[in-house]
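Batch job 17 of 40 flagged for manual review because the log was empty.
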Amino acid sequence: MLKLFLEWYKRRFSDPHVVSLMVVIIFLFLIIYFFNKILLPILIAIVLSYLLDTPVNFLHKKNIPRTLAVIIVLLVFILVVLAGFMILLPLIWQQMVSLITNIPNMLNFANNFITSLPEHYPELIDVGLFDSIIQGVTNRVVQTGNSLLQFSIVSLFGLVSIAINAVLVPIMMFFFLKDKAKICSYCSNLLPKNRTILNKVASEMDMQISNYIVGNVLHIIILAISVYIPFWYFGLDYGLLLAVVVGLSVLIPYIGIIISSIPVILIALFQWGPSAEFGYLIFFYVLIQSLDGNLLVPCLFSEKLNLHPLVIILSVIVFGGLWGFWGIFFAIPLATLVKAIINAWPKPEEIENIKNRELKTD
């Protein structure tokens, strides 16, 4: 058994380019796994730098010095973010507080509806069971709401950390965008010399990650605005909050749309009941989601990933379990990375050909 394993190992890992690839991947995995909290500001800066790299390159091609282009784009980005926080965040927070305080009323409405069911289906409905479930859910929701609305000492320390990162991240973004070529060259010099496969995988992933980040941000904004329009038109309660939730749901492929649709349906049902307004709203909501999946997503993500839905869901579960939010956010690129490594991995006969060429060269 050991002999078979050693033979398999020699066939698959005898190429120094393969060894270099595996060493770099394992090193990066361990660094991110053990130091992800420390590296979080750096990762955020890298993600945002990918987002702003396209407009910086556009301005640079218009004969604007790169440093000036970076300053212009970064200032515009900061102003847009600050304006969004100042305008939208108070409204979203107000709606969230109102929703949390109103949840007990919603649960009472659901309780009254459920307790009326035994009159029609006495043999199927256990009133005592539903009462205990509703009471338990009510208590849990109230406790969660109170914890969200209260700030503790830990929360204050968290705010201080956020304030520090809010200063550090733009500074790092400036240097990432300004000195991108120098940083890439420096990192390249640190890598092993035998890195043909590594360069191939890195080049493919650089393009994939860039497209994914830009596409995801545009996807969130477009979807949130699209669903907010019918929410606002029909006067749905907590429309802005729900629109933001629906927009952010795209970060969790397949699962996010289901999770975000549940509060939309429940709140609309609580507000209007099974009425015409409820039907119209759900119709437009489903229509927007259909257009999103069949039109918007193919336009934004023109690069086909060719990943099976089951692979994507498993990637969300695995990488989300390892790295939390960022694991979920990068689940698709990480799955693409695994696929790129598998595709770039040389076959045994290719390794033999490489060895023969190297021997002839020597």
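Reviewer: the log was empty due to a logging misconfiguration, but the result itself is present. Residues 66-115 form the longest helix (50 residues). Unflagging and moving on to job 18.
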